[in-house]
Amino acid sequence: MYRDWSPVVTRASTEKIRVEDRLAYWDEYNATALIGLRTSSLSEAGLSARQTNIALRDLYLAEIEGNDHVIERNPTLVRRFPKESVFACHLAKGNGYFVQKGSTLTVRAGDTIIYDTRLPFTYGFVSDMRQLLVEIPASKLMENWGIDGASLPLKIEPCSAFATSLSVELRRGLVECLRSPNSESVAHVPAHTHTVIKALASSVLHGAASLDTSIYHVLAAKQYVATHLRNADLTPAEIAEHVGVSVRHLNRLFALEATSLAEYIWMQRAICAYGDLRALPDNVTIGEIAFSWGFSSHAHFTRTIVSRHGATPSAIRQQKRMT
Question: What class has domain 7-160?
Fold first, then answer.
């Protein structure tokens, strides 16, 4: 009746490209797969780089490795290759610097830079590097990460042992998905990633005291929801039992995100169902999609989709046919 949604994975490497053609090849690939930019390198061996890109339901990920190089997105490239996105780049290896809006930020392994791709920037790596990149629509910045655009660029440098552990958790989740994009990792990575980045950003904007170790309960709950979302009988009590805390405590934690555990379950079902409405062929009916994501009532499905996406399921289907 339904099929599990599979991520779109693309890869690129300069390894088999002639040295004199590598920069042009890299820029051409990125213009299609990620963002329009101009790359330069002072290395005698030329640019040595590899990249993996994965498109999830509501998240775009990339892993980039290479030698020392500089990427630039100047005003001309911003106009030529428009991008309505925000990037969070976690540097897993190396050292570098980031320049945007008159600010120069030094970046070391373990740091994360969040920045607006609609504005020109320069990102330089002064050593061998590896970074994990998360892309979201600029319009979702406050909703997903709790950040106002005026706060960007934002450098997240872990300020405590707990913040460092969260940074490691961010890296672990992204690498798990990028290296082995199975159905389970693909399902829980978006919510996991948003929760960790939002907490880390809050620690910079509001101080280390804003971090609460209970975030691990939230992460565990969201992962359980993601992997059991098709179960129509999934309940907050079942999730709380798995996490090892009370439903009341979990609801207090989810209230910090202006929702409840039950509301979060239905929101995630609506996100997944919307993806199917847009992706699955018309011979899979709206009713079948609703039932596959745990909706037993057509009226409830329609209300949830309209509340989340501003259009009825049939209207979303119609939009898909027109694109």
Answer: mainly beta
